[in-house]
Amino acid sequence: MRQGRLVETGTTDDIFAAPSDPYTKELLAAIPGRRRVTAAP
After folding, report:
1. Sign of CA dihedral 37, 13, 10, 24
2. What sign does the CA torsion over 3, 30, 28, 26 have?
3. 5-38 b/e with 16+ CB inside 10 Å = b?
4. Distance CA 6, CA 34 (A)
5. Which of 6, 28, 38, 39 has its Cβ near the most Cβ atoms within 10 Å?
6. Are residues 21 and 7 in contact, defined by beta-carbon separation less than 8 angstroms?
């Protein structure tokens, strides 16, 4: 959730493997030691 809005749904494994929302990608990129996920063109 971001600002009271649902931004991502799915299993934990799916979200960690292939986040679709830019905010989720930012959150996952902030985890120390985790590789950065980039958006598809």
Report:
1. negative
2. positive
3. eeeeeeeeeebeeebeeeebbeeeeeeeeeeeee
4. 24
5. 28
6. yes
Q: What is the pLDDT of residues 1-41, one digit of tens each?
A: 899 999 999 999 999 999 999 999 999 999 988 766 555 55
pTM of the model: 0.70
- Number of Cβ within 10 Å of residue 2's Cβ equals 13
Q: Which two tokens stand for residue 7?
A: 């931004």
Q: How far apart are the first and last CA of the chain?
A: 24
- Tokens (6 digits) for 22: 């830019």
**Number of helices followed by number of strands (H, E) in the chain:** 2, 0
